[in-house]
Amino acid sequence: MSQTCPTCNAVVEPHAKFCTDCGATLASRPNVVFEVEADRRHVQNHACQLRFRVTSTAAAACDVTLRMVLHGRPRHVEQDDDQIEQFCRFRDRGDQFVLSFPFRPLIPGEFPVESLRLIVSPADEPRQSQIFELPDRSLFVRAADPNQPAPGPGIAISGGINLDFSQLKEMYGADVRNLLNLNVDQKTDPDAAEPAWQAIQLRPAGTEERVRCTFAGCGRPVAVPEVFMCRRCEATVCRRHRDADKPAYCKVCAERPREEEFQRKSQPMKPPPDAAEVIEALLEITQSQPAFEGRVWTQRGTQPTTRDICTVPRSSKDCYRIGERFTLNAQAERDCHLTLLDIGTSGKVYVLLENHPLPAGALQTLSGPDESREWVIGKPAGIERIKALFTLEPLALFPGATSFTPLASQGRPGEAVAAIRAAGAKLRQMPDHCWTDAGCEFAIGD
């Protein structure tokens, strides 16, 4: 297979490093122009499809195989195994194909392209294939919540595509699975603008070029295929500093969409009548000038956490669905003793831990009341609140309470209010530098 010199357009040998006519240096690149559809303003046509346009620049016939896999399949996005690879054959220079990859998001969010590989082969010599791949993880698809108003039209963001899925029900009904059928004729808006195409730069597969992670001074050298660019701050980060639940963001920036999602889903939720006074008493316990930091947060499942005290805000927020498993994590900068309180969606108050020793920097993880049982999000829907109290010295904040037991008898919220306010009075008698607090909230929906 020949390649073309970008300076003088002369046809040279496929693996030549210099042009024989003008002497220009030839970069290793595929003999195709590779583009992704961007700036999609509507989903009336080609909805739930990621489309790539491939144009041949080779002087001879060649075969192109494109393989594309989205991050999060099969849990968060559906992408059939027989739809992750597409093939086309070019007869001559200038031939062009559009390759479509259907998918269906199961939840709103960002879905990065986990793997994108292009194989270019001479039609008569398939063994001389050249393999190219996406050099980073900055290409992604954003799917909005179908039940929420769209923030705006689809636009290109950091090399990705923003698809407005808020109109799917209006145009196609509730069953969006029909959109995966490529053989169904879909309505086209005659007034819609022509799709825009954004070029994608590929590099030869196996290239060991390394860059350094720029997250919080990490500086760790990372192979280029493992590098990810945060959608918000555009920092180049390694896998360690990429958020697991929000893979389009670094661990710091991921807290913003978590909070936005929480605010949106928690707005219509009201606490039970008996819980209002309990919540007010708990909010009164706060250290306005903490001498050291402590954090508490939740995560899905029971896998090791990718978040820590450096990235989690003092008041962490998240959203869960009924039936999901979750893990509770706490961490502090100094050696201290940890007390954890939980106010459930029903209004009941539980002491999860009291005076538990917590070494500086150590991670305290709770996935259930004991080793044989795991926490599962249960009914009713609402907002669950966790309060963490960190004291440098052991302090009996709730005398007589045992772990994972209610703080008050059934139907007597006044007992819990009195116990919480008594604990707050004990903390305020301590020097300010001897204690701090943190909290987390998560909205629970059906």
Q: Judging from the principal axes of the Cα atoms, what is the shape?
A: elongated
- Helical percent range? under 10%
Assign the structural class, choosing from mainly alpha, mainly beta, alpha/beta, alpha+beta, or little secondary structure.
mainly beta
Number of H- or I-type helical stretches = 4
* pLDDT < 50 stretches: 41-47, 146-190
Number of strands: 29
Radius of gyration: 27 Å
Distance between the termini: 57 Å
Taking all residues together, what is the mean pLDDT?
A: 75
How many strands, what sense, and barrel or not for the largest sheet? 8 strands, mixed
Give the count of structural domains: 3
What portion of residues belong to β-strands?
Answer: 25-35%
Walk me through the structure.
It is a single chain. This protein is 9% helix and 35% strand. The chain has 446 residues and is mainly beta. The chain folds into three domains: 31-204, Immunoglobulins (Immunoglobulin-like, Sandwich); 210-253; 268-445, no CATH class. The model is unreliable at 41-47 and 146-190 (pLDDT under 50). A hairpin with a 6-residue loop joins strand 1 (3-4) and strand 2. Helix 3 (276-283) packs parallel to helix 4 (413-428).
